[in-house]
Amino acid sequence: MYRCGGVIPELESSRLRLRQLEDNDAPQLFKYWGDDEVVRYLNMSRLESVQDTLDMINLLNGLSETEDTLRWGIELKETGALIGSCGFNVWQLAGANRGEIGYDLGTAYWGRGYMPEALLTMLEFGYSVMGLNRIEALVLPENAASRRMLSKLGFQEEGLLREYQQNEQEEGYIDLHLYALLRREFAQRRRK
Ligand SMILES: CC(C)(COP(=O)(O)OP(=O)(O)OC[C@H]1O[C@@H](n2cnc3c(N)ncnc32)[C@H](O)[C@@H]1OP(=O)(O)O)[C@@H](O)C(=O)NCCC(=O)NCCS
């Protein structure tokens, strides 16, 4: 069974480095996690300060020690700029080998293929190192860019989960589309 024990492995693609989030990333990440444009799609409340962002970084790194979450910072290799984050929000290995991903980029970096590139690297890691068989993503119906990107990566839309989570920004519940990609589908696409 895969165990990271709090050490986030560094991964690389042609333009990107996926690496552990550090305390000094807080000011930059606050620009994204404090931006309504980004967080409206994440079903989380906008973070209010750099300190809140630092607390979130520490929370996520702490959760990776108990194998409950794995979150990478996404860095542009060329400039070293931190442009967003991605990771496994949760995974269940025993009896399922299933994981759920989450991801976000600063708005200035949207539409340049960065997230599909980061996710390909992360998916490869999920299937081959973590031993996952099925990787899922939950997406708000109005998040057309994320849905488009998942389709490009070969994820299949499996249905609408009605009132699946409490709305973090206002009263009520939200519907989420369930997307999933199986290990054998991923391997097949890679062979093409
Ligand atoms: C979703 C997100 C990660 C996509 O990352 P990205 O690196 O910009 O992805 P891409 O460069 O592949 O661009 C997204 C695709 O959606 C398309 N797209 C963008 N806005 C769209 C819209 N309103 N309607 C339809 N398609 C749209 C783009 O044209 C592109 O498709 P293309 O390559 O065929 O032209 C990024 O937009 C983001 O961080 N959003 C905020 C956080 C978020 O939504 N996280 C995911 C929660 S499930």
Describe the 3D structure:
- The structure is a single chain.
- This protein has 192 residues and is of the alpha+beta class.
- The protein has one domain (11-191): Gcn5-related N-acetyltransferase (GNAT) (Aminopeptidase).
- The chain is built from 6 helices and 8 strands; from the N terminus they run E-E-H-H-H-E-E-E-H-E-H-E-E-H.
- The protein has helices at residues 26-33, 36-39, 50-65, 114-128, 144-152, 183-191; strands at 11-12, 16-20, 70-76, 82-92, 98-105, 134-139, 156-166, 173-182.
- The protein has an 8-stranded mixed beta sheet with strand order 1-2-3-4-5-6-8-7, sandwiched between helices.
- Helix 1 crosses helix 3.
- The mean pLDDT is 95.
- Coenzyme A binds at residues 38, 41-42, 103-105, 110-116, 137, 139, 143-146, 148-149.
Short description:
The chain is an alpha+beta fold. It is built from 6 helices and 8 strands, in the order E-E-H-H-H-E-E-E-H-E-H-E-E-H. The protein has helices at 26-33, 36-39, 50-65, 114-128, 144-152, 183-191, and strands at residues 11-12, 16-20, 70-76, 82-92, 98-105, 134-139, 156-166, 173-182.
What is the secondary structure topology, with strand pairs?
Layout: E1 11-12, E2 16-20, H1 26-33, H2 36-39, H3 50-65, E3 70-76, E4 82-92, E5 98-105, H4 114-128, E6 134-139, H5 144-152, E7 156-166, E8 173-182, H6 183-191
Helix pairs in contact: 1-3
The structure holds coenzyme A.
Residues 38, 41-42, 103-105, 110-116, 137, 139, 143-146, 148-149 line the site of coenzyme A.
Protein name: N-acetyltransferase
Domain N-acetyltransferase: 16-185
GO molecular function: protein-N-terminal-alanine acetyltransferase activity
